[in-house]
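ingest -> fold -> write
write: protein_1
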Amino acid sequence: MNILIVNQSIMDMCASFVMLLTAMVDVEGTRMSRDSSYDQFVCRVWLTRVPLWALMVKSTYGILMIAFERYFAVICPVWYNVSIVTASIAVLPS
């Protein structure tokens, strides 16, 4: 099982969940105060959709990593088998 594909699937699932939350939760921004830490959080993080954009960027980088891994597996198969597969086997617990 390729760990990059599993990681990509989990990241996409989290991004879908956050996108669903941002579509469903409507925060009324007219009665916010500067003194409340909850209002500051909502204004700075939730209304700007920082979690959604962060997960989208991480998903894009994950796709790039999968593309580079596949590129090296096709272009340099001997080097890929020696270095990447051996390193992966060494990392796996026995």
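write: protein_2
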Amino acid sequence: MAGLDGRRAGLAIAVVAVVAGHVTAAQAQRLRPTATIAFAGGVQVQAEIVDTPEAVERGLMFRESLGPNEGMLFLFEKTGFYPFWMKNTLIPLDIIWIDEQWRIVSIAESVPPCRADPCPTYPPAGDARYVVEVSAGFAKARRVRRGDRLTVTGLPASRPASRP
């Protein structure tokens, strides 16, 4: 029996190793913690939290899809002017810039993937502290507007959560 249990354990380890070896870069990105973002009208998005320089630089690069209620939340250390670009981004996106009070300051709708270098940048209308990326068409379909206030839950303890 001990030999059989040992073989089972070895097989289980091998299966885990094989499965782990087949995780794509896009799947690995989805292993980040998420926050829930509630937009006006009650629409909620599960957004991956991006809060390191490396993760900010990568963003949604190489992703082949993004669900209708999925997104990415970029947390910057301080308020600033944060233009975005779409280098190596395969899907069109809506980019939403947000201030420290979780109010929308700017929206770039249906930003297309970059097809040739140099890639254009998409600047916000003003300074922001956070940025949310969602699938193209989200803002229009959900009537997301400048000045709307978002409610965000599930942020790391070191980040300020929004208050309803």
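write: annotation protein_2
The CA atoms of residues 144 and 157 lie 27 Å apart.
Helices lie at 2-21, 25-29, 53-58, 138-141.
pipeline exit 0
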